[in-house]
Each structure stands twice: as C-alpha cells, then as structure tokens.
Amino acid sequence: MIEFQYKFYSIIIRNCIINIINLDAFFCSNTDGALFISHTVYPMNRKQFQAFIYLLISFLFTSTIAGYANDFKQEHLVLPPAIMKNIETTIQIKGGHSSDFIEPILLINGIKKELDSNENGLFIKYTFSEKTELQLIQQNHIERRDITPIPLWLSILPPLIAILMALITKEVFSSLFIGLLIGTTVIYKYSGIGFFVAIFKGAFAIIDTYLMQALLSHEHLSIIIFSMLIGGMVTLISLNGGMRGIVNILSRYANNRRSGQMITYLMGLLIFFDDYANTLVVGNTMRPVTDKLKISREKLAYLVDSTSAPIAAIAFITTWIGAELSYIQQGIAEIGLDASAYSVFLQSLKYSFYPLLTLLFVPLLIWQKRDFGPMLKAEKQAIQAKPGDFDKKKRSPQIMKELELADDVIPRWFNAAIPVLIVVIGTLAGLIYTGWDVNVWGNSSLNFTTKLSQTIGDADVFNALIWSSLAGVFAALILTTSQRILNLKESIEGLINGFKTMFHAILILSLAWSLALLTDHLHTAEFITGLLTAINISPQFIPALTFVFAAAIAFSTGSSWGTMAIIYPLILPAIWKIGLEAGMNTEEILPLFYNAVSCVLAGSVLGDHCSPISDTTILSSLACSCNHIYHVRTQMPYALLVGSTAVIVGTLPSAFGFPVILSYLLAAGILLAFIRLKGKLI
C-alpha cells in the first residue's frame, strides 16, 4: 500500500514537471525505490527556473517518502535504532520464507558468524568498531547492510544541547525539542542518507517514533491521567470554597507576629498536594492578616515559597509524584533493578536534605523571632510602617483565574478536606489492595513495617493513584453540586480548567520521556560512565555533584520540572554503572542510588527558590503583592544557607556512610546556631 502510494505521488510530480518545463528528462527509480532524474538542461526563463526549484524540492520530498516506505518493508535483519561504536549490539534475525525454510547465513565483512537463538528467533551479539558490511543469505533472499557506527561521544550531544539551550533561552520546551532533533539527525545521518534528508526525517521521527512510544506506555498514560485528575480536583475545591474554609479556620489563631507566621507555615504544609494552589491560596488569603500583624510582604512571600515546592516534592500524594515516579521508573528499568518506583521514592526521602531542612529552617526562624540579611531590613521597615504604607495594588486577574472564588460562595472547610482525605486514604488502600500477598502477611517472622514496605513495593502504584484521584474528583463534584455552589455545567468547566493547568507539565513530561528514550538508544549513560570513570571520580561524590548540577540548571531555567526531565535519565543509570565499575556490589550502590534520586529533586527545588524566573517564585511575589526583586533578594540568602548546609553536612557525609539521622541533627544544630549568631531579634 505504501509503495503504491509512493509510485502514485511520483507519477503526479513527474507529469506536472514535464508539462511545466521543457527538459529532455528521464525519470526512473534506483534499487532503493527512490526517484531520480537524468536530464539535459537548456537555458531557462524565470518561470522555468522556478519550476526547476520545485523539481529539486520534490526530489527531497520523494526521497524522504521512499525512505519511510523502505522503513516499512519486511526486513530480516533487525538492528537497534542506533548502533554505537564499541558498544555491544544485538543483531536479531527474524522472518524468513514460509516454505522450505533454510537456516540463514550471516556474513560480517565476508566472515560467517555462528547464530544463537532466543524467543524472538536467531540473534548474534557483535561490537562494531568501524564501517562494517552485513550480508544475510536465506534461500533466495539476500539482504545487505553497510553499517557505520556512531561515535559514542555524539551520544552526549542531545542532552548537552538541551541543557545549553535551556541555559541560554531560559525555555524548556524548545530546548528539549532541539536536543531531540540533534539526536535523531545523528542517527539518520549515520544510516547513510544526506544531511538535509536526515534533518527532515529526524524531525518526523521525534513525533512518529519517540513521542509516540513515550505516550503509548501504560505507565506514562497513567501519569498523565493522574496529573489531570489532581489538577481538576484542586481547581474544583478552590472554586467551591473548600481551601478558603480551611485557611479561614487556621487564620483565627493568628494574633501576633509569631503566631501569624506559624499559621502561614502550617497552611503551606496542609495544602501539600499542589505547589501552585499552595502559593496562590495561602499568599492571597494570609496577606491581609500578615499586613495587620506588620509582617513584611517579603517574609510572607518567603514563607509561602518555602512551603510550596518543598512539601509538594516530598509528599506522597501530589501533582509532582507522577513525574517523579516516571523518571525513577525509567532509571530502574534501564539498570534492571528489581524494585518498584514507589519503593525507591520512599527509600530516597530520607536523603532529601534540602526540602526537609527548609521545612525545618522556617519554624526555627519563627521560633527564634530573628532574621538576618536583606530580610532583617524588610522586617524592620514593616514594623515601623503605618497601616496605609503597605502596597495595595491589585493582583493580575489572569493569575487567579483558575482558582478564583466567587463572592457569593460560603467557604466550608470540609469541601476540601473530604476529597483530599479520599485521595490520601484511597491511595494507601489501593497500594495495599494491589500489593497484598497472603504469604507475606502470614509470615510471623516479619514485622509490620517490613510487611507494609514489601506490600507497597509490590503494589501497582499507577492504578492506585488513578483510582484514588478519580474518587477524589467525584467527591469534589458531588459536594459542589449538592450544595448548589456551582451547577453541573459550571463544575465540569472548572474540572476542564483544572485539566488545562496541567498541560504545561504534561508537555514537559512527554518531551522528557522522548529524550530519555533517545538517550537510551544512543547509550548516553555509557558515555557518562566512561567519562567519570576515566577521571577516576569516586561514586560517593556523584550525589553531591548531582545536587549542585541540578540547582544550577533549575536556577538558569526557572523550572524544577524541566531540570528533572533533563537530569534524571542521565544520572540514575550513570551512578549505578559507575558504582559497578568501582567494584561495589548492589547493597553498596543502593544507598548512593537513593541519594542521587533525592539530589536531583532537592537541587531542582533549591535552584527554583533562587531563580528570579521561576514560576513558583513569581507566583509567590504576585500572590503576596510583593516586589518580585525584593522577594528574590530576601529569599536567596536563606535558600543558599540551607542548600549549602544540606550538601556539606547531609549529602556528602551520608554518601560515605555517615548516619542520616546524625546528619539531620548536625544540620539542624548548625542552622540554629547561625540564626542565633547572625540573626537579630525583631
């Protein structure tokens, strides 16, 4: 069917061109089915010259069509998408003739090779170090391939260019796309086609190969559905007054500067499931309260910003968890680790030093009633200010569009509490249900913690998340319509608006999954492993380097999600292989692996906190009506203090075997001492 269409298009193009220009032309097809022309060129006028240009373009188009047609032909030699130099490659042989089957003969540079068999047929493992000729002889079928292996150093170009583009443009989408285009172009160029045709086919391959494979994964689709459902639920419980009801209850207990700051902090912890909702709801609701208590807008913005991403990044049920599990799943699949993504995530939480220490540092500041640096100056100005001195400028209505509460809606706390509790309890129930094993729970030699951990490790986390989030959406929908806060049409529109808020994250995820698949085909992890091994770096330093690298990328791009998308697929396979190269066994590598998993996330959050172009940082400024530059300038010293303490006292020592609990105690002591020594009473 494809070959017929190709010939049909070729005939149309041929006839059109012959009718337009006067050329002695002869069209035919080469052995690959591609169209070419032999002609004598006469002097051409302007119209004929334009037609000749169309002719050249048609050659490019039809050659590309022919290339795709060849891709669909039945081939007996099945090779991986990319053949890398000095990397062992599996050559699969399948197909054959239905009658009088004769075992095929494979010649590599004219030398016959012995074939092994597996469930897919015959195969052979071979390492290509130079240009090689493959020849398969099977009855009357002869298939030849000229293989030019891709130098391994080119495998780093797609992620490296994506990173550099992100640093330069401060934009993640185009950076990921350009990285993908570079990789697909390299693959097609080394397959023996022209450079421009390679770019053309590579651009299409991003969509029809890598993006399609990424989106057709069951796990990836589950993550997309879960993220959309949570986004819809968050929007609906904001529109029905549930979030505002919870905030109103807590705000009653804010009667002085210390209690006002503590209530703001607690609100940030309670609205843990989405960083955007956290920022917008807490900032806008608490601003009048903190103004009355003479708490600076800068301090309010810091409290809001420091309890949004950190808690959303490490909580079990958030809009972040789907992406985190996806990246972790890719890493453990590539290294062949026998563990679920959720169990790896749980194991890595103890190494999340920056998010946890940030959540500890904030109440220490509040308890001590001390500040330092630019924040101290801002707090003093707020105390001395008159009530009318606070900025009363209006907020951008577009920012609050999706979470705006109508004036006639009565805030009720249970409209938010019930759906959220259903999601949390439902997820736990789903994990236990899908991971339940009678033999495990009937084993009296195992304690309860071990049984629960093993059950969650064996559970189908994606089904559990989808079930619980769907139940939460239904609960929010019923609560909203039954109280006639919104009618059914308005509620559905609210859900759809919530789905829209997740499009940004889903698009990043899709491109990231595609780039991860491409780097897997190009064996980028092997290149990084070899590079780090060549410079003889100890595996114990990889988590700390990962933290710093992630923070730098997040600071430059302003996107935690984009940073995780770029770094996770590279670091997780690399640290495992570096550990193996260093002679470590699985039990020794696992703590470093868990540490690296948390460091990508922690570094992303730190860079996000310090970046003036971060979405959550900008939203914090807007929600609190705080000058954005003032917010960045007052928050950065606090974030850098906690970040440096986290990596020096936490990440590095724990990688070398220092007890994690002692690292936290030591870090808490250092932070408290710094507040006492450098901070001034307010």
TrEMBL record:
<keyword id="KW-0472">Membrane</keyword>
<feature type="transmembrane region" description="Helical">
    <location>
        <begin position="501"/>
        <end position="522"/>
    </location>
</feature>
<feature type="transmembrane region" description="Helical">
    <location>
        <begin position="413"/>
        <end position="436"/>
    </location>
</feature>
<keyword id="KW-1133">Transmembrane helix</keyword>
<feature type="transmembrane region" description="Helical">
    <location>
        <begin position="542"/>
        <end position="571"/>
    </location>
</feature>
<feature type="transmembrane region" description="Helical">
    <location>
        <begin position="51"/>
        <end position="69"/>
    </location>
</feature>
<feature type="transmembrane region" description="Helical">
    <location>
        <begin position="175"/>
        <end position="200"/>
    </location>
</feature>
<feature type="domain" description="Na+/H+ antiporter NhaC-like C-terminal">
    <location>
        <begin position="317"/>
        <end position="648"/>
    </location>
</feature>
<feature type="transmembrane region" description="Helical">
    <location>
        <begin position="661"/>
        <end position="677"/>
    </location>
</feature>
<dbReference type="Pfam" id="PF03553">
    <property type="entry name" value="Na_H_antiporter"/>
</dbReference>
<feature type="transmembrane region" description="Helical">
    <location>
        <begin position="461"/>
        <end position="480"/>
    </location>
</feature>
<keyword id="KW-1003">Cell membrane</keyword>
<keyword id="KW-0812">Transmembrane</keyword>
<feature type="transmembrane region" description="Helical">
    <location>
        <begin position="150"/>
        <end position="169"/>
    </location>
</feature>
<dbReference type="InterPro" id="IPR018461">
    <property type="entry name" value="Na/H_Antiport_NhaC-like_C"/>
</dbReference>
<feature type="transmembrane region" description="Helical">
    <location>
        <begin position="302"/>
        <end position="323"/>
    </location>
</feature>
<feature type="transmembrane region" description="Helical">
    <location>
        <begin position="351"/>
        <end position="367"/>
    </location>
</feature>
<feature type="transmembrane region" description="Helical">
    <location>
        <begin position="221"/>
        <end position="242"/>
    </location>
</feature>
<protein>
    <recommendedName>
        <fullName>Na+/H+ antiporter NhaC-like C-terminal domain-containing protein</fullName>
    </recommendedName>
</protein>
<feature type="transmembrane region" description="Helical">
    <location>
        <begin position="262"/>
        <end position="281"/>
    </location>
</feature>
